[in-house]
Specification:
The complex is a heterodimer of chains A (411) and B (453). Chain A is an all-alpha fold. Chain A has 19 helices and three strands. In chain A, strands 1-2-3 form a three-stranded antiparallel sheet, with helices on one face. Chain B is built from 19 helices and no strands. Chain B starts with a helix and ends in a 6-residue tail after the last helix. Chain B is mainly α. The longest helix of chain B has 32 residues. Classes of the chains: A mainly alpha (411), B mainly alpha (453). Chains A and B meet through α1, α5, α11 and α12 of A and α1, α2, α12 and α14 of B.
């Protein structure tokens, strides 16, 4: 009964919240960012979880697994379905180069730094294990699309190539992050001891990609012929549930598998636009479900001080990685793009994809390592949502090439 | 062709996963999620393919459940079917909203004579007919051969009472699929809803009398009839309240209607159970309100006592597809087909006897009620379906009369299984025959040379 009540409560909050969040609210500086992006639901989840009210105890959270798998599957499919190569080709090639290079450099910087720390000062990073560090490095990559969209809302008359590049990057760098997460999961580092021992990590990866590609193709076949709106919804929901269930059955990350499905669907000629509309309809409630449950999953930590220190270090490392990526790419692509050296700071907002990735990792394993990763990511997301949008605004306005209503503006 | 290919691939994937992966590898929650998605897709695709043979879609959903469920291929294990019962309850109350929403008092008033006479005809003919035939032929049936006359009569009467029960969910699903409208449809729906309540009374009284007949020391106590009447009244009152709440929400808020309706259906189910537990725990009283009746009443209130009846129905219609797919495929998966192995011939005979008396009762009732000849000819085949309510009553029989043995209960379940498969087909054909299905209405317009839009 408690599990059922838990599911109902999560769904009610998510559905009601999807109508309120992401809306134009005039709120004081800093707090506005939190309430506009739905991040407050992390805090609601914390309140409902064992740290405060205890409404979502361990058993209830276990019962929420299917709902979380569905939500993660939905988010993954939606993310992948946005990446239609034909559409991407309409943008200048430099945008794609920037987005991918930025993601790879951020990933590389974080991997190198965390790897070095783990090798030389492992006690400093306790209780994080190698798999946890790799996951954190992957989660450092994505940029929150919502926050950038909100910044754009506030600057409606600014037509700025930099803002365009930032938005494009936010839509694309998550793919690198999710692919990295998929590889990490398949490397058996996050897997629990009971596994299919006869398979090697590469084979797991092939299975994950194969499963995703197959289900993406199936959704394409089902929706290729004109079907009613009810049928479309049924096929989409059914396929997401099936794929997420199959991924979870094989202990593969649903987010990764459905990303592949979405990629395949987006690039086959069919009715993917209609499927996208269906996916977008339920996007907000599912994101809020993930945020709520992520907050509720926060477990009491042995040392809060040490966890906060790790989280702060992670935020700084991520900012460093993004900044460095901006500087390096700015020099590499100087001629065509003329990017300011501070461009990386405009990509700090972290948002929903990061939380979804952290939840995926948390679903796959348990223990102090998994709890620590979740705590660090959630703290980093809150911090990045507090200051990220302001930094983005500053980067855009400070860009010397900004145009407002066709007139050049400075500062 | 594409959908057939998808079905084959999904079944193949499922076979690989279920048969190829060691059970200890996957969690129970992952298995439930996987099976849930599998049932949604395969049930719908199979039903779509079978609809080319003019079979109703719910028959396809039920067949999918039977084929892929634990009785045949075993791709959906029984443990998962039981776990997904939560969805079952939710779907049933949601369907009950639809049933209530389709009951238009104006049309019911016009058809009241037909409804009443058909109702009386079915109850009298089915109950007495089945009872008498089974009593007369009691020595031939394996479950009653060798029983003393008194017990044989009790068994026959219980079978007669069970024969009266039918499935409102199947009726509403067929009406929704065929977009049926008209006097015949309203009559069938009205009789079905009334029978849902009446069947419980008849069954309860019969079981009480049978208990006395089979346990000589026991005295007849019909005070429980007042209890049942109280439960029905309480359910109706709660339904009136719920209907008012829904109507107010439609008037004032009108947001997220689908989720609101699903939420309301869910809360009705859970609060009914909670109320029963609470009353038993604190007052020592057994009092169960009936969620289906609450939702039927609520739907009726919204349709007939607010301005939002049609929009309420549209909301339900929009969300009904996945609900029907899940509900009926799980119903099919829950059927124990192994019971048919040794009892199929007796089950066929019993089903046939029941069908004959239903037909007679409807024909006579329809004649008295002034139904047109076309409707009288087919109304009998519209009342064959049996499902969850009947299975629930069988469980009561097993508990109350363990001396009849598993064979009797097995046979009853076999009869219900046959009726669950055959019934929807009969009703769909009947709707087409009387011209009230959408397909029939369009065909009539085309032949009359009128635009079909």
């Amino acid at each position: 009964m408690k599990i059922v009540a838990g599911i109902v409560l999560v769904l009610i909050i998510a559905l009601l919240g999807s109508r309120v969040s992401f809306a134009r609210l005039k709120l004081p500086f800093l707090r506005g960012s939190i309430f506009l992006t739905g991040t407050e639901y992390l805090l609601v989840g914390v309140a409902l979880g064992p740290l405060l009210l205890g409404l979502f105890d361990a058993k209830t959270q276990q019962g929420l697994h299917p709902l979380i798998n569905l939500a993660l599957g939905w988010i993954g499919l939606l993310f992948g379905a946005q990446l239609e190569l034909r559409q991407l080709k309409r943008f200048p090639r430099q945008y794609l180069r920037f987005a991918l290079l930025q993601a790879l450099i951020t990933l590389g910087v974080c991997l190198a730094a965390l790897g070095a720390l783990y090798h030389h000062l492992p006690r400093l990073l306790a209780p994080l294990s190698l798999s946890g560090l790799l996951t954190l490095a992957a989660i450092a990559v994505p940029t929150a699309q919502t926050s950038l969209a909100l910044v754009l809302q506030e600057l409606p008359t600014v037509r700025n190539k930099l803002l365009e590049i930032l938005r494009f990057t936010a839509g694309v760098d998550g793919v690198v992050a999710l692919l990295a997460l998929g590889v990490i999961c398949c490397l058996n580092l996050l897997r629990s001891p009971v596994g299919l021992e006869q398979l090697v990590p590469l084979q797991y990866l092939v299975i994950a990609v194969g499963l995703g590609a197959t289900t993406g193709l199936l959704l394409h076949l089902l929706t290729r012929v004109r079907c009613t709106q009810e049928e479309l919804l049924l096929f989409t929901v059914g396929l997401v549930v099936f794929t997420a269930g199959a991924a979870a059955y094989l202990r593969l990350p649903p987010l990764f598998v459905t990303l592949i499905a979405g990629l395949v669907l987006a690039n086959l000629r069919g009715q993917q636009d209609r499927v996208m509309l269906v996916l977008v309809q339920l996007e907000k409630p599912f994101y809020l479900v993930v945020l709520l449950v992520a907050g509720a999953r926060l477990a009491p930590l042995t040392s809060l001080t040490s966890a906060l220190a790790l989280a702060s270090g992670y935020v700084v490392l991520r900012a460093l990685g993004k900044s460095l990526a901006g500087v390096i790419i700015g020099r590499l692509l100087r001629r065509p793009l003329q990017l300011p050296p501070t461009v990386g700071l405009g990509l700090l907002p972290q948002g929903g994809v990061a939380v979804a990735m952290a939840m995926t990792a948390h679903q796959a394993s348990s223990g102090a390592n998994a709890d620590a990763v979740l705590f660090i990511v959630l703290a980093a997301v809150v911090a990045s949502e507090l200051v990220g949008p302001a930094l983005t605004r500053w980067v855009v306005r400070a860009d010397g090439s900004a145009l407002e209503d066709g007139r050049e503006v400075t500062g | 062709m594409a959908r057939l290919l998808v079905l084959v691939v999904i079944v193949g994937l499922m076979l690989l996963l279920i048969r190829g992966i060691p059970p200890q590898f996957a969690s129970a929650q992952a298995a439930s999620t996987l099976c849930f998605g599998f049932m949604i897709l395969t049930a719908y695709i199979l039903a779509h393919l079978l609809s080319r043979l003019k079979l109703p879609k719910i028959t396809g959903y039920i067949l999918a459940g039977m084929i892929f469920g634990p009785s045949l291929l075993g791709l959906v294990p029984r443990s998962v079917v039981l776990e997904l019962r939560l969805v079952d309850d939710l779907a049933l109350t949601f369907i009950a909203f639809a049933a209530g929403g389709e009951l238009r008092l104006g049309m019911l008033r016009q058809a009241r004579r037909s409804i009443l006479s058909t109702l009386v005809g079915i109850v009298v003919a089915t109950y007495t007919g089945v009872t008498l035939v089974l009593f007369a032929l009691g020595g031939l049936f394996p479950f009653s051969a060798g029983l003393p006359r008194g017990q044989m009569l009790a068994v026959a009467a219980i079978s007669g009472a069970l024969s009266v029960a039918r499935s409102p969910s199947s009726v509403i699903a067929i009406i929704s699929e065929t977009k049926a409208k008209g006097r015949f449809t309203e009559m069938i729906l009205g009789v079905t809803v009334a029978l849902d309540v009446l069947a419980i009374f008849i069954f309860a009284i019969t079981v009480s009398v049978a208990e006395v007949a089979l346990s000589p020391g026991k005295s007849l106590d019909l005070s429980f009839v007042a209890g049942i009447a109280g439960e029905v009244a309480a359910s109706v009152i709660l339904g009136l309240l719920l209907g008012k709440i829904i109507a107010t929400y439609l008037e004032r808020v009108r947001a997220q209607l689908t989720f609101f309706t699903l939420g309301a259906a869910f809360l009705v189910t859970k609060l009914s159970t909670a109320l029963a537990l609470l009353l038993e725990a604190h007052l020592g009283v057994q009092f169960h309100v009936e969620p289906m009746l609450i939702c039927i009443t609520a739907g009726l209130v919204v349709q007939n006592f607010s301005r939002h009846g049609e929009s309420f129905l549209r909301v339900i219609d929009r969300s009904s597809l996945p609900i029907y797919v899940i509900f009926f495929s799980l119903a099919g998966a829950a059927l124990r087909l192994e019971v048919l192995e040794h009892t199929w011939h007796w089950a066929l005979i019993l089903s046939g006897i029941r069908a004959v008396f239903i037909y007679l009762g409807c024909y006579v009732g329809g004649t008295v009620g002034g139904d047109p000849p076309r409707a009288r000819r087919v109304s009998g085949v519209s009342f064959l379906t049996q499902a969850g309510v009947s299975l629930g009553l069988v469980k009561i029989v097993i508990n109350a009369f363990p001396q009849f043995g598993v064979d009797y209960a097995t046979l009853l379940v076999a009869v219900i299984t046959i009726n669950q498969i055959v019934g929807p087909v009969g009703f769909k054909l009947a709707l087409g025959y009387v011209g009230e299905s959408r397909e029939a209405r369009l065909a009539r317009r085309r032949s009359a040379g009128r635009p079909s839009g």
